[in-house]
Amino acid sequence: MENITPSAVQKESGQSNIKNSLSLNDAIVLIVGLVIGAGIFRTPSVVAANSDSPQLFLLAWVGGGIVSLIGALCYAELTTAFPNAGGDYYFIRKAFGKKVSFLFAWSRLSVIQTGSIAILAYVFGDYLAVIFNIGTLSSILYAGLIVIILTAINLANIRFGTLTQKLFTTVEVGGILLVVIAGLFFTPENTPTIAETSSSSSLSSGSFGLAMVFVLLTFGGWNEAAYISAETQSGTRTMAKALFISILIITVVYLLINLTFMHVLGLDNMGSSDAVASDLMFKAFGDTGSKLIGVLVAISAVTSINATIFTGARSTYALGRDYSIFEPLGRWNSRTSVPSTAFIVQGLVALLLISLGLLTRDGFETVIEYTAPVFWFFFLLVGISIFILRKKEPNTKRPFTIPLYPITPIIFCLTCAYLLYSSVMHTGIGALVGIGVLLTGFILLYFQNKKQKQTT
Known about the structure:
It is a single chain. The protein is mainly alpha-helical. It has one domain (24-446): Amino acid/polyamine transporter I (Up-down Bundle), CATH 1.20.1740.10. It has helices at residues 24-35, 43-49, 54-81, 88-96, 98-131, 138-155, 162-185, 194-198, 200-203, 208-218, 222-225, 236-271, 276-322, 340-354, 363-392, 407-425, 429-455. The two termini are 35 Å apart. This is Amino acid permease. It is a multi-pass membrane protein.
């Protein structure tokens, strides 16, 4: 999910301020690095549990690549026509006004960004629990602990250097290659028994729509990648190629690793696993292999969690700076040069979301259910904003225009609407809680407007 800074709306930056410094290769590497993350080691099991057949399972991953490409092309028009560090916040504000953008800013703190932290923390917890299992609550305890540790590190302004980030990213890619090689060359092909084959329909507990919600979570990041569209050399030609090639690469990588999982474990075993990569490596190399991949995935998750905590606190700080009702969040610690209050509040909300796992069967799935409806609702608004802004500002220069307009953005909007519907109708208590938290934003909006009137 992309990082936004609400205060950025205060500055209408123009195209003249943006340098075209990124080559085609730079853009491809950046997009692939942003999208491929620790989620690919966890979400395949949930997608498998919501797929009625191997063919449907693989179709979901192909569909994720297609939807991601369509969405990225839509974002490319918005970001080149209205370049601004505010991202979604800025587009929503220009198209729908301050009230709707306030609700989006509130959802960033309470649902979207903190939900991302909790989801990644659960990936960390699930794989670390394979190595050091201390009971049924291992995953929840490890997830909460890593959020506390990384929040404390950021509060002290101890940063992971770029070299460390690159090293961990290399470890992440290495983990994917290790799983694929182990699955294809060191394990026998899975041969389901009659009992396993007959149980496939009972294992599938959801729907194709819900499977797509989890697939597109794993593809998450292309919307942030589209923000570099105004910085690429040769303009629209380079951006279009970069988007197409990078998402093609990502789709192939995801298909390859999922084919490997299915080849070794089978759809049923995948659907019942909390750590599919560890299960595969156990078949290939025994307990040592299982623990090795657990370490690699845990390291990968730490990198993603740290980056999300760091950027999330900055947007939370800007929320406090821009809206008086959140004023305490806009305090900057001059001694450590960090937004201390924002870090603490963000960490507490993430811990609260992690604790949802105590009330449900699977914390990872519950937190995704919590974030998905809100995320897809605002994604839908961004899609609609394409049509609104074309009508409101027809004379604005658009260096990149969406191919096959209006068919392409219509497909994007319909997809978002379908995933919004699926994330509400085919999920549990998590979705209702997420929607409820978003609706509390109307109460906060009332007090924000009241306080603003008193100061003017």
